[in-house]
Write a structure and sequence with these properties.
Elements (H helix, E strand, L loop, with lengths): L2 H13 L9 E8 L12 E5 L10 E4 L2 H9 L4 E3 L1 H7 L3 H10 L2 E4 L4 H12 L7 E2 L6 H8 L2 E5 L5 E8 L4 H16 L9 E8 L5 E3 L3
Parallel strand pairs: 3-4, 3-5, 5-6
Antiparallel strand pairs: 1-8, 1-9, 2-7, 9-10
Helix pairs in contact: 1-7
Length: about 220
Amino acid sequence: MDINKLTEAVAECKKASKKRKFTESIDLAVNFKDLDLKVPSNRFNFQTTLPHPIYKKVTTVIFAGGELAVNAKNAGVKTVLSRTELEALGKSPKEIRKLAKEHDFFLAEPPLMPLIARFLGKYLAPRGKMPQPITPNADIPVMLERFRRTAKLRIKENPVVLAKVGNVKMNNQNVAENIEAIIHALEGKLENGIMNIRSVMIKTTMGKSIKLEVK
């Protein structure tokens, strides 16, 4: 994709949107063709790191104990749950749903992963929020900063991927570079690469869609 044309399209997208009392996000929709979703390998769910942040802040849950839990709290993670708290949480579907709804990313010590799968799996997995394993020596501040640049790309029942690529206050080229990164990431998951992409659209939260040229 031509980065200059992408940048122009982002500018057009912003111009077409009326001024709002809130900061609108800029969202990407990628529609696919010739993709048999009955084939498991054609249904994907992964994350990719973008060049520029798409979130001002992210909310994270870390399941951990000991020094890792202390490090997480020192890094500013507000929701740090121990094994005991995890087991208690597993008895309250209402609280699990609330946790899943209110948080963007989940991390966990490897020994806790089986318990998480048992208690929380059916609530987190459908949302694409199953925890990523975290090692005791992980640099948590670096991970949290990376999450601000992380796009979740998922295709399940319909041949389309929706993703946030920025907001109307961002530099046009930065948004364009995020779009380019997502398209490249998707190409790597498609059997026929860009030939499996039918169309690419961007729009602000309440604005009209702008079609992008895909080559």
